[in-house]
Amino acid sequence: MTAAKASGTVSGEADPVDAVYAQPGAGVRFDWGLAGASELGHVCAALVVVDVLSFTTAVDVAVGRGTRVHPFPWSAQAEAYASRVGAVAAVSRAEVSPERPWSLSPAALRRAPGTPDLVLPSPNGSAICAAASATGLPVVAGCLRNARAVARWLLHQGYGTTRAPIGVIAAGERWPDDTLRPGVEDLLGAAAILDGLAGARGGLSVEAAVALAALNSVPDVSAAIRGSVSGRELAARGFIDDVAIALERDASTVVPLLRGGIFSRA
After folding, report:
1. Which intervals of the chain form a coiled coil (predicted)?
2. What does the alpha-carbon distance between residue 68 and residue 90 come to, in Å, rounded to a whole number?
3. Is 56 within 8 Å of 141 (Cβ atoms)?
4. Which pLDDT value is given to residue 147?
5. Cβ within 8 Å of residue 15, ≥6 positions away
6. Which domain holds residue 35?
């Protein structure tokens, strides 16, 4: 990535209206979903994807156990892809069995036997990470469990300046018509990382600062996420342990870094 591209500067041929969507002039930027990741992927030097319930939390748990995680868009092709790369494919939470104990559930991943390589599909965080991998940028899986560690690592690597900005992406969920549904859990998870990046030399964009303000206005983050639509949905489906694991704020020092399409420890 060139310095001009990383700084968000625009050539004479670029539309200045389009340029503002990249939040130029800030060392730390914030956006939502696949489209936001695509926009910031053109101008940032590193991306952080946050999908608290549950992709990036599951990645943190799995990588912390020594597993290499292959993000893959949610589709029937995950099994075939896993066979090609010599991995096992995670199944849906409802399909977990003694023979197939790996799923998107962080609680299931804690209980399951260790495996060297895991293909972990999901319609949001995994799809965003798989697409972001194609940019060649460093892509980090962030969540509440590793928020402090992720922020510290990024700053230590020299990111967070206007020449090497960081893009923090809240994955969100999907409505039945496949449009983005912003999720409280991902807003607060992203903001926890932004909190650790608040001292970055390039400063926060307005979008990042407002996200951080949301975190500072919530007196009980755990209660907010438990009471959110996504938290209540998982609890109603019998996966309240997944929510509990996701709320273990700063319990992990793992920084899962996507290299060559595979998450492993930074």
Report:
1. none
2. 13
3. yes
4. 98
5. none
6. 1-8+27-266
